[in-house]
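User: Hi! I'm working on a homework problem where we have to compare a predicted structure to a textbook description. Could you give me the structure for the chain below?
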Amino acid sequence: MTVDLGLSAQHSGDVETSQILATVNLGGSRTPPPGYEVVNAIGFYKMHPTALTMDEGREKCAQEGAHIIVLNSDNEADVIRTFLARKPNIPHANSQEYTFVGLHDWIDEGKFISLLGEPVENSGFNRWRAGEPNGGRNENCVMVDKDTKFVDIDCNWKLFIVCELYDL
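Assistant: Happy to help. Predicted structure tokens:
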């Protein structure tokens, strides 16, 4: 992180006005791959308007140095809402209303973790729809709709995905 400070002063009669200008660079100078955009000033995201399984989506995001979005806050939930509101019709998708999020219970049934290995309880965003998770061994991936409540689902469903870059 770098901070550049500047000071300017003006005198007019008996009044002196000072102004401090600060420019803060958090080190996020990375140029995102084509199609990524900054959403809510929290990160780079890209919607892939193609029907993909969870594995296909993971591979697509990984090719871009990213991962399927992992919700860590209400601000990131707003990212999902933003993309759901403007997405086109997705041919061959199991649902037009949902997208995968980067959670699964592949390793230990019923214990959902993020694609980054963090338990959902520690992620900063852990909101399940009433009655979820309920899929047992048949539903090991997670999707959300505009209400951004988690629903466990079969990983072979085809949904659109949102990729998230690891860092700015």
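For your comparison, note the following. The chain is about 15% helix and 35% strand. Residues 63 and 83 are 21 Å apart (CA to CA). Good luck with the assignment!
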